[in-house]
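<instruction>
Derive structure tokens from the sequence
<data>
Labelled lines for chain and fold
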Amino acid sequence: MRCAIHARRSTDEHQAASLEVQLSEAKRFVEARGWTWSEEHIYIEDAVSRAEFKKRPQLLKLLNAAESGAFDIAITRDETRLGGDMVRTCLLIQDLLDAGIQLFYYFTGEQVRLDDATAKFMVAARTFAAELEREKISQRTHEHLKTKARRGLNVGGRVFGYDNIERHEGDRRVHVEYAINEEQAEVVRGMFAAYGSSHGLRSIAKDLNERGIAPPRAGKRGTRSWSTSAIHAMLRRERYRGVIVWNQREKTYRKGTKVRIQRDADDWIRVDVPELRIVSDELWFAVQQRIGANTSEGRPKGGRPFRYLLAGVARCAECGGPMTVINGRFDGEMAKAYTCAYHHDRGVSVCGSNTRRPVAALNGAVVDWLHANVLSEEVVLAALRQVRERLAQRSTVTSAELPALQTEAERLRSEIGRLVAAIATGGSQPRALVEAVTERQERLSALEARVRAAQAAPGAIDLEVHRLEREARARIAELRDAFGRNPDEARAFMRSVFDGPITCTPIETSAGKRFQIEGSAVIGRFFLRPKPVSVTLRPQGDSNPCYSLERAVSWAGLDDGDLTFRAAEHNPRGRFRQPNSESFAGGVLIVGVAGASPWFEAICRAMGAGLLVNQLLDQVLAGDVERA
């Protein structure tokens, strides 16, 4: 019996050795019963909360492998390793059992069953206990932090203007206190004084950057420069007037993942700590009055929506910052212009690119390139024709090999049967026998996938590619029309079609300063709608809607959140380069499965096993395909 092993560790420090223990005990459980396991089907989730169900790629891979029949038994410690949400954990267990997988808890040695109402009740009761335990832990933690907050202590994190001072009793840390950092406090006072004297956020940010003052640390998200948004948040922070406000937001779970929601003002904890005052009440309230006067009513949360074609897509090549739109004068007339947002908002010390170019000119250049190289029937249909030719060629060759493949598969089944019988009789080298079974089982799985692919109807390939050609022509016409009729859809297409940001490099030309625009577009992405419904990628559906999308993406071999495929990738040198096998496999799967016929779905499933894609499409759209 082929086994998959699952292990999960939460973020608690005391569980540092938990994963090693889980894996060793699970392997011992498997080997004691004469079953087999392989490294390919060991699924490890490190630092993953038990309440999280959406952002769990290893769990999704486990479910997809179960659906494809890659193993027969799943082994884990107990139900708490699978999750701490009663409803979603029960659905997860149901999915595994519905796929024909046996589920065992190695700690108790029991097999999980849902054969009758009593068995279902017991599973629900145990998952209820797991969720109740999680809630109690959360409540105790929140109570402890609340007690610290009421004493004016640090309950987590760093704040610019203060140092975190640890207090110990012997070797044990008791708590953390705030203490004013005088150097940073002077920066805070200057910031409040400047804004209170009618200076704008942009001028304050530029001044701080030009003076080389280190900004608050933001980890990997930081740009190591002052931004207007950071200054705006600091100007609203009551701690600088000696008042600690805590418990404004609450961590909770929605749709299987962690989110933060605003608490009622009555639940906030406010503590006066005069020794932490950096600015006076008079100055702080004067700044709040000006902020209120400058705040627009009805502004949507999360900032203004994009209005321009390259917004959110184009980046400055000098500093990596986004491109923004400002007013500029060209040939004596005012017009909207693209320029570097970091140069405009943070100053020349952050980015020296002061080039401005009309919005219409840059939009036109990018749209013209897309029309010629992406929204072109010749390019797209040529790619589909090559895919069809290579699929047909390999289908013919593989069909001829079918008898030999079936004979080899039968021979491997016989060998596995003899080895299993030897293990059952208590051979002298059980470990070697188990490894031999594992090796032959992997070879057999690969052969069976090739047999399934060879048995698929070759005529289905032509039918599906013809359908895709018709869809391509319709989609090209639709998108060409959208660039002139529907700006919102055009922007959505722009954000999806480019494989990374468009870079704008300032250059000097005989006509003056210009932008050199570079980017890599993925031809196949025009098949996708602005809001694709990806559950069609798994025709059998999912009983647990909280991760149906993620399972579809994982099954297709794509990165988390990337719903597009890569039929061809264009590089700046004007030639197509071959994508890696994983992304290309995912691309074929999406083209084939989304709305395809059952025959083509069967072919794509065989490809998903890693069988045909690497061998069959290794040259399609490689360097020999020239740009249109």
